């Protein structure tokens, strides 16, 4: 046994109290080192403890309000604040262009992202080095181009149509919506108070987006909308469930998919601040000993999600199903091409060795799981936040309805529109065709000015991506941000929430939801300050898919439903890696049938 494995073995077999001794030792060592070695960030202000340890930031990350904490630091110390021994938060309006620069000036991701490795494998998202990232990004760039994403519109509208049909049916039955409100494992597990006559709209958006992305990335919807819950049930009917459900069994007994994604993000947001606890470090096994149930749920969530992804990918690799042209097909195609395999079937005659097949599968699984985790709750949370702001601001709701009514009046999607949704027609039964037809076409809504302004404004106000995404100055390089020079090893981040609420950029009404600001003459310079999807070479690759869904969803809700929000004054939220509403409880009525004045 070599020394690394020996230490790993010792840690794995240590009693629970020993890791704390190790952690304490590490902390003392770090403080000693900081006191004796030259500190290149000595002139950057910030809380004194941040000079020595990331614990203070981790404490606020654990509380789910890191962005508000960092925002308060900027209010106190100015645009540059030291938030950990190595990291400077840069809230100057010009900072994002440098920190997230393109080309040779681009800065790689920090070690923080190792918190997202799956079974030791880096995904497109968590790959740190620039070259490795570029080659992975090339693989997925085409499937996520606008032209490709348009081909998924049929699948998306089928799921949105199914969601609308379910909501309609329950609303028509009367008594409002309280369906499955108490289901264990719903999203962040944060449902509160009574559900009488109300529905948590956020949960339905989660069912929808998990179904959409599993349809595109795993080959079929995971059946959340059908069941009205995102908990994949245990075997209960002797095998009558869908294949996808069967493949999820055992992987998801306690929490819903949204909850697993949520806990995973929260855990990564904390562990990512301590690289020596992350995969690749010999101390990584210690993370499993930290006595924090939420943190352990996050680690378990990653294991469970990767099990679901692995089963779905394996099923596709081994099946002789007709190609669907979905993201999974494309991931598999690209990997096969890269390995010069063409369409060789994956059976006993495969030219691959078992080890090669295992690596091949691990890569596809990691990216399929990335798509599920990066592409589902982000879209649901952003849509929920936008709907909150729209329904909480009656003036905006009225204006938006005028615009939508004019566009949709008399031009409801017809059978000929099915041309646009061809890719899924061969799979559609009469019921799902009827569902699809009640949903606005992307072509009808994509260029609506006020709709898009309301979406941008909702994303600005809520900031789904709220804390600063960290980048590191690489070896041999230095970076100048507004007169401050940062040297190799320094981590830089731009706090999206703070920048998106900066009165110097947005004016004195920066904290007001006012879509009109995006339509004014001065608006042309604003887009670069909206960091929702990130900017630069690591910006969101799924933006086209996300925007397409958000536009269709917001148009569907606004033109179809009245939502009477339980609390129009506050959208409660929690932050892990992403910032998300905890819920969106509302009484739901068909438009004009109750609740809201037109
Ligand atoms: C409104 C919804 C979404 C938001 C707010 C969002 C936000 C972001 C942000 C801020 C990043 C940069 C992260 C970083 O630098 O650490 C990112 C990256 C990424 N997103 Fe999204 N995203 C959304 C939807 C999607 C969708 C639908 C998908 C795909 C199905 C997706 C896939 C990805 C991937 C693969 C990356 C990593 C890209 C890379 O490193 O090259 N996202 N997203």
Automatic annotation (TrEMBL):
Gene Ontology MF terms in the entry: heme binding; iron ion binding; monooxygenase activity; oxidoreductase activity, acting on paired donors, with incorporation or reduction of molecular oxygen
Residues noted as binding heme in the record, renumbered to the chain: 540
Source species, domain of life: Eukaryota
UniProt KW keywords: Heme, Iron, Metal-binding, Monooxygenase, Oxidoreductase
Cofactor section: heme
TM stretches of this protein: none
Pathway participation: Secondary metabolite biosynthesis
InterPro entries: Cyt_P450, Cyt_P450_CS, Cyt_P450_E_grp-IV, Cyt_P450_sf, Cytochrome_P450_monoxygenase
Keyword Iron: yes
Pfam families with a match to the protein in the record: p450
Assigned protein family: Belongs to the cytochrome P450 family.
Protein name, entry field: Cytochrome P450
Organism classification: Eukaryota, Fungi, Dikarya, Basidiomycota, Agaricomycotina
